[in-house]
Amino acid sequence: MKLRTSHYLIFAFLAAFTYFYSKDGLVATSVLYTAIQFALPLALAAMVGVMCERTGVVNIGIEGTMLISAFTAFFAGAILKNTVQGMLVGVFTGAMMGLLLALMAVNWKMDQIIAGVILNILAAGITSFYYRQNYSIPSTLDPIDLPVVGAWPILGPVLSFHGPITYFGIFFILALWFALYKTSWGLRSRAVGEHPSSADTAGVSVIRLRYLNVTAAGAVGGLAGAYLALEAVGIFERGFTAGKGFTALAIMIFGRWNPLGALAAALFFGLTQAVTNQLMIDEVVEIPPQFINMLPYILTIVVLAISAGKVRPPAAEGIPYEKEKS
Amino acid sequence: MDAKQGKKLDFSPILVPLLSILVALAFGGILIFIQGIDPLLAYRVLFTTAFGSFDGIAITLAKATPLILSGLAVAICLRAGLFNIGAQGQLISGALASAWAGYTFVGLPALVHIPLALIFGAFFGALVALVAAVLKAYRGVHEVITTIMLNSIVIALSDYLTSNPFKEPDQPLTRTPKIQDSAQMPDLLGLPLGFFLAIGLSITLWWIMRNTTTGFSIETIGRNKNAGWYAGISVKKTIMLSMLIGGAVAGVAGAVETLSIIGRFEPAFNAGLGFDGITVALLGRANPLGVIPAAILIGGMRASGSTVQFEAGVAPELVDLLLAMILFFVTAPLLARFFKNRKENVAMTSGWSN
Hints:
The structure holds two protein chains of two kinds. Chain A is an all-alpha fold.
């Protein structure tokens, strides 16, 4: 059997885990727990990319979608004094950003990369203009103590006690995988992303499906933003998403536009970051904090350099669809 | 491609940006009004501060200088069909390198020291762009992601360097020592020397794009890679070249800002200049001469942001919001049409892996 990148990753993971577990079991489980926390927003954001690109729309505005959704989620939560309502506002905001992208990319047939960059710049402009200090949400979303799983040895403390968006997110990713490969919606979406004119001939409305998927993807991006503001840290700052939306694109490519692949890639990113953090706390290695901050960005570039050319994106990606005139 | 397509003069290159600025200002006015502030007052303060007096204009042009250059850095790459979002990182790299050259070399005459520091800036700006260029040309990695990642890497790296090896000794602040007097760029006719340098570079690049085979290669690749390849143009070489020119120009932007305004490198002191370059380039329709008025407008808005806060009570981030809306309105109807004219395939930038 030929060794693939994923096999090396599993080996690396097992080696790292064994190392930590031999030193301190509690630390090992807490590293894995943190890895899931780092990975979740990246995985969800990567789903935005998967949903859009599988129907042939490049979405480089994930970063802006997350940023503005985190913003509205946080301030709605703070003003309404209700974190759950804040989350819903964040999801709605994300959907609106998706709709805006669909309008620019599908309707106006704009260059999709530029359309995405506009989303990012709009989000940065709006969030920095309306940002106010001295607001706080009543509490972050409460973590859930899983009933049976929580009692498992080793895995229990890793999998249990995450917030509701984390569990929903993982469920969503599995559901998206199922929907994409096992339902007619998935088949149609993929057909539209690969060969829109054939899909059109077969009676699929290319424009409508692209609108639907890009808007729904925006809502997922909104959820990822809400996760950052309401579940992970409970604050909002300017430029709060720190490039996660772009890292997510690399994760999507690394995961070959497959929800499960992207989830695995996101866990790899999260694990790398969690392990590095732990190594720094333990003072095993002395790394300046700036280099720790650089890690996900360097990893993104390395991953892209390795996987680009080997993986094939959806064929119709980035090309606006125009019905042939007869 | 200018002036060849129609029989009558086409005013849309000027009218569309102007119109989109007006629409953006109108929307911004509504937002200011909602905040309970008179938008006319805010705009009057904004524009009289920026363009109402000789001093104001001098400050505006000083602010516009790095924007012209960072706009050029984005525009040249756009011409080649590349979207260089990394002007920010290239600019910071150039700023830090020129600051280092500015304080390290002692005893040079200004005529040697200033060009040397500028070359350092250009070189290190291009070095950052090189990473993205190689990955794009030889591995097919999309430049938008790599340049954004490089921005973050350069910011972290420059922060590390200024707080450790390049740090000003015996100072609590994270910054490099001040540059030598011989590296300080002087003013000319009450305007910063860098402004003339920026104008000169714009004209040079405009000329290169119009009249040389290099410019022709870049334009051709930007319109249709396959046609360029078929015509015998090396696509890889042209991608590398245009990215490196962009990186070098962005590096010079950082260097000029360091050598004439800031006088040293301090992290976050030139934040946003590279990102404004994107707006400048798109507002100037990716034309090396078009970026000049675009940069002056945006420079003026940046220059008077704090005065607007002081006199009209609007947060200076208003400028960010206005710029975002200008960008939205200038690209939405315009680019679609602009790039549709250029070739059948509307997509200007390319997918992830080609």
